[in-house]
Specification:
mainly alpha, two-stranded antiparallel ribbon
Length: 125
């Protein structure tokens, strides 16, 4: 299957930890296909990680929970992405996000629980 070039670029950006670029790439595709909750779920997951890495825990929690909800219908695999490898990551993040902290200054981000690492791979291409 041929995917939009932005989708391929999303994998590269995500694996490099450039979640801001992930947001831009996914949003570009999602704006063309607003009913695509798969793209919206990946977008929410990327934005959640971005918020968390900058100390905005309050912003990260609902975004990751929404990603969890949106991607559910696309399990186990969609557009070459094995969501059974993504779901444990999302659930670990949701468990790690502190519930009693809304935000920390950027200088203190390193004191937050460290998120697990996730590398995304396009399978069956």
């Amino acid at each position: 299957m041929d995917y939009p070039i932005e989708y391929y670029e999303f994998f590269v950006s995500f694996n490099e930890g450039d979640y801001y670029t992930c947001h831009d790439l996914l949003e570009e595709m999602w704006l063309i296909d607003r009913d695509n909750l798969f793209l919206k779920g990946l977008l929410q997951m990327s934005v959640a990680i971005y918020h968390y890495e900058y100390g905005n825990v309050k912003g990260a929690r609902p975004m990751m929970a929404t990603a969890h909800r949106y991607l559910q219908a696309y399990r186990p695999k969609f557009w070459g992405l094995d969501l059974e490898k993504v779901y444990p990551f999302i659930e670990q993040c949701l468990a790690l996000f502190p519930q009693d902290i809304d935000s920390v200054p950027f200088e203190q981000v390193g004191e937050l629980p460290k998120l697990p690492q996730l590398f995304l791979y396009l399978e069956g291409v």
